[in-house]
Every structure is written in structure tokens, then in C-alpha cells.
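User: Hey, quick favor. My workstation is busy. Could you predict this chain's structure for me?
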Amino acid sequence: MNILTKFSIGQYVVGNSSWLRIIDSRLKIIAVLIFLITPIWAGLVWRLGLVCCLLLITFLSLLPTRVWWRSLILLTCLSLLIGFLSLLATTDIQSLDGYLRDPNELQVILESGQRNWDVLEIPSKKIGGILFGPFSLSRKAFELGIKSSTLIFTVIHSVNLMLLTTLQEDIICALSWFVNPLKKIGLPIDKWLFQLLLALRFIPLVQEEFQNIIKSVSVRSINFRHLGFRKSINILLTLVERLFLNIFLRIEQGADSLLSKKVIIVKTNRFKTPKEKTPLSFIVNTLSICFILIAIFLRKLYGAL
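Assistant: No problem, here it is.
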């Protein structure tokens, strides 16, 4: 299985079939920042709305389905798994505030049975001589599970959509436009952006090394059932160690190639790719600006806790 082609996560895909490619890179960065920053101190309605918005953009983006459906399913499963684990980790955990605070401090009397703070209650059951339960799912645990899963999905998928439809050089040029005032202070902005460009170009190399490790295991046809638990863990740790050693070797090779050049002139203006200004690009960029303004307005209305 070729991971680089089937799971195109963080890689630019060449093509002209999507309107996301027409949007200016600076507007894409602002939109991604909205998906990254606005979930902070936001309620469930806003977080779920961001997930639905990302799914709607993905389905209407006119990108080839083979580009994003595998990574979308993998990311959805990962988000649900993290949300489920965070939900279980906070279930049946009593808060310490009940022991530290005075119950008469707020002078509030709640009638018993008037409000139930548990979303799900399962009584204890005895199955095969083993007692299971009782199990109760509180509202805070349920909200934490939804917040964790939606945050993972929003952060990864929004950045992945930008990387799929934007050249790495265009991203660096857009970032240089935002941080250009910092050059007056004397900060080495060009060097930092060049390092970021190298990091973005290093993503396919990491995926390639991971693919090589998987192929080496599949060729040897290792039967983990006959090895046992301890030997299987040792093999997995050896594979992880080999993966990092190969990655560090690639880093060393790239560093040696850069050091072989006596003088390195870094100018972010050279990375900008020429694009023709058409009426379609003007319309798409205008609608993108309207989307950003509407998102900021809706965050103020419905984004509170």
C-alpha cells in the first residue's frame, strides 16, 4: 500500500478542480486561524458548528474524493477514540470542591430530584460471577468528550485542507506578509520562514520512511501471535527506533547539503508563484472575506460557554 498516494495528509495535490485553490493564501491562513482559535472558551454549539462547516466545505470543495476520503475517515475515527477515552477518564470522578467548600456559602437550596446532572445511569449487573457497574455518565464528562473530539478534528482537518490546496511557497509568502512589520525590529523573519518551509517539505519524507517500515514488516511476514506479548512489544519498539533513526538521517543529509553551500541567501519574495487575476478569483476572494466576517460575528453570538 502506498501511503503517500492513498493518505495525502499534509501534502499538496496538483490540480485545478477546486475553488479552494483560487482563494488567496492570506485569506486561507485567516480562515484556518478562525478554526484554530475560536474553539477556545467556546460552547458545544460552536464546536459542533465548526465541524459541520468543515465537512460542508470538504464535500463542496470539488476536490477529488480519492484525495480526502481515507484521511477523513481515519481522522474521524481518531477523534471519536480520543473523545471516548476522555469521556471514560472523567466518568465517576468526584470533584474535590464538594469537600473543600462550605455547602452554605451560596445559600442555594436545590430540591432533591428537581435536576439530574447525569446523562446516562447504568445500575450494577452481575455477569458470569463478575460484578459490573454501577456506571454513570455526567454532563461534564459528556461535554469534555465532545470538546476533545471536535477540537482534534477541527485543528487537523482545517490545516490539512489548506495544505492540500495551497503550495508551500504560497503559505510562506502569506506568512511573510503578516510578519513583515517585525523585520523593522531586527528579527530574522526570513530565516524562520525558510526553516518553516523546510519543515513543510519534510512531511512527505516522514511519511515515506513510515511506509518503508511498514513494507519491511509485511515482507518479513512476522507472526506476532507466536512471538508473545513481550517479544511483540520489543519488535514494535525496535521499529519505532529505526523510524526515528531514518528520519534523523534524512535531517542530517539535508543539513549537510545546506552547509555545502557557502552562502545561503533567503528571500521570501522569490517563493511567490505568479497567478492571474480573473473575475472568478475576485468573486471567490470576496466571498471568502464575507465568510470570515460572518464567522467572527457568529462567534460573538453563539460561541459563548
